[in-house]
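thread: overnight batch results

M.L. [08:02]
morning all. the overnight job finished for the chain we discussed friday. pasting input first so we're all looking at the same thing
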Amino acid sequence: MRAIQRYREQQTAIAKSPTEAQMEEERMRDILLLLDSLFRREETTAKLILNCLYDIGSVNWVNNKFRTRPANWLMKWIARLTKPAFRMFALRWMKQNCPELIAKWMHSKVTFEQPQNTPEAAVVEAETAQENTSQDLESCTREIVRLRSQVRTLTALLIGMTVSLGSAVAWTVWKDQSKLQSVTHPRSVITKRAE
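M.L. [08:03]
and the structure it wrote out:
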């Protein structure tokens, strides 16, 4: 099995001369610089792409995670409010990481390398995976239980804070409206007192 892998590595090493490898490296650097320049010049396009992705992703995530209608509606409202903050952080991440990720992806498409998954390698991977499966399964199960409890707690806190904030806003609005009504209709109050 290792002999096959070494043979393939030698075949790929033979195929490239040092000048070709240097030219490939220079061209990849050029692609990276061009992509970086593209993301900096076309910031508006990147923002529009992020807006579209956020709209689709937030609605799908909320529909997937929150099945009850009130919670679903509330989370979609919260998602609309957090869109500007998401766009700011995502744009910064996109400018820093996307040129390199796209350049690596493009490079993988033009290298034409054969996948290294041979049947012998799959057997070795399966054997090593079986050895650690029971220990990993236990630790993963504990981690999942812990994370689920944290998600439940955070969801309850979020709903509680949203309800308390919403009720405070509603009470303030109601209080202001009752003051406005007493100011706008003073004669009706005076005639009622006279009776």
